[in-house]
């Protein structure tokens, strides 16, 4: 039997000032996504995104339908972006097998009925949004997407950004998805922070050393809060919330968005001098 999808209801900025640390973590942090032998999913009502992890641990896991999304099969009216943050594994979609090395990204479109995951060390991060039409499945390996070098070592945010699913790459209805790797000695994943009021964005932090943490900023620019995030934990960032983070060591993260448009640069900066 499939594990039920956890529900996270939408929030608004007025709720944040009264939240305790526990409230913030219960609302925006997904602490345990990769459980051996399980598919763990969370449904956020922000843009109706489903995110989670599939950890085959040597077996085969089937992604079926869920009553929480009223579907006979998962991709009946959804699309799915997958990034492998573990060892090499295989995703099979309607009989076609795709091998994903570490950091590879696979897009599966609406209408694919059977999806399964396999791999001894594989850890598949899943990000899904509603879809109004079908686009073909596509696989991209690390370094084969659009690569952008951003930031500067002087400001501790030198990073390599790999765009995989986007308007000039793998086509999708809503999803925009990629992986960013910080260079050694850099800790900020983006600064200045920003919002994009037209899309919800989720971060999955990975390659965070066991004795390190990422301090993730959220909230409005004049009412910021923070979460302390460990390896392979995810953050839900509503469209009204800024998002930025600094680590105690270099790390990587999967960023994924869905909402009104797919324009990567459609964002509103939050200058450091405006933050409170």
Layout: helices, strands, pairs:
Layout: E1 6-8, H1 21-28, E2 29-30, E3 38-44, E4 49-55, E5 60-63, E6 78-84, E7 89-93, E8 96-100, E9 105-108, E10 115-118, E11 124-130, E12 138-140, E13 146-150, E14 159-165, E15 176-182, E16 193-195, E17 199-206, E18 214-220, E19 223-229, E20 233-237, E21 244-247, E22 252-259, E23 268-270
Parallel strand pairs: 1-3
Antiparallel strand pairs: 2-20, 3-4, 4-11, 5-10, 6-9, 6-11, 7-8, 7-10, 9-12, 13-14, 14-15, 15-22, 16-23, 17-20, 17-22, 18-19, 18-21
> Helix-strand pattern, N to C?
EHEEEEEEEEEEEEEEEEEEEEEE
Oligomer: single chain
Which overall shape is indicated by the principal axes computed on the Cα atoms? globular
Radius of gyration equals 18 Å
Uncertain residue segments: none
Q: CATH superfamily assignment?
A: Jelly Rolls
CATH architecture: Sandwich
Q: In which range does the helix fraction lie?
A: under 10%
Number of domains: 1
Biggest sheet architecture: 7 strands, mixed
Number of helices: 1
User: What's the total count of β strands?
Assistant: 23
Structural class: mainly beta
> Main sheet: which strands, in order across?
1-3-4-11-6-9-12
Query: What's the overall average pLDDT, rounded?
Result: 93
Q: β content, as a range?
A: 35-45%
What's the CATH class label? Mainly Beta
Function: Catalyzes the isomerization of 5-dehydro-4-deoxy-D-glucuronate to 3-deoxy-D-glycero-2,5-hexodiulosonate.
EC number: 5.3.1.17
Catalytic activity: 5-dehydro-4-deoxy-D-glucuronate = 3-deoxy-D-glycero-2,5-hexodiulosonate
InterPro entries: KduI, KduI/IolB_isomerase, KduI_N, RmlC-like_jellyroll, RmlC_Cupin_sf
